[in-house]
Amino acid sequence: MINEPIHVTDAAFEKTVLQSTLPVIVDFWAPWCGPCKMIAPVLEKIAKEYAGKVIVAKVNTDENPEWAMKYGIQGIPTLLFFSNGKIVHRQVGALPERALRDIVSQFLEVVNSANTH
């Protein structure tokens, strides 16, 4: 069970994110990005708390620009919320922890209700 954010390369993106049976939150970030550093600890907590329910994946856009370009990522951090290989939600910019947690729980509610019907 994965209980921490995983760093995903362009080469591994399809297998890790698009083919995942679990919902995936992808954090497009870069080492020089201040707001990215602000949300990183929150994403680490979420990865631990939701281990087995959601995967938190981090894509360093400096080293792995391919998927960021495919998805039209213009500002970072951008979080893409994937379920069954499709984007369910897009969040651009850093958020306070409570707001980010609200989005994650809404995302999982939507995903879980879609999977049970």
Automatic annotation (TrEMBL):
Which residues carry out catalysis? C33, C36
Quote the InterPro entries the UniProt record gives: Thioredoxin, Thioredoxin-like_sf, Thioredoxin_CS, Thioredoxin_domain
GO annotations of cellular component type: cytoplasm
**Which Cys pairs does UniProt list as disulfide-bonded?**
C33-C36
Return one GO MF term. protein-disulfide reductase activity
Q: Which domain of life is it from?
A: Bacteria
Question: Annotated site (Contributes to redox potential value), which positions?
Answer: G34, P35
DNA-binding as UniProt keyword:
no
Q: Where is this site: Deprotonates C-terminal active site Cys?
A: D27
Please state every residue range assigned to the domain named Thioredoxin: 2-109
- Keywords assigned by UniProt, alphabetized: Disulfide bond, Electron transport, Redox-active center, Transport
PANTHER family listed in its UniProt record: GEO12009P1 (PTHR45663:SF11)
Family per record: Belongs to the thioredoxin family.
Q: What is the protein name for this chain?
A: Thioredoxin
The species is Anaerolinea thermophila (strain DSM 14523 / JCM 11388 / NBRC 100420 / UNI-1)
List the top taxonomic levels of the source: Bacteria, Bacillati, Chloroflexota, Anaerolineae, Anaerolineales
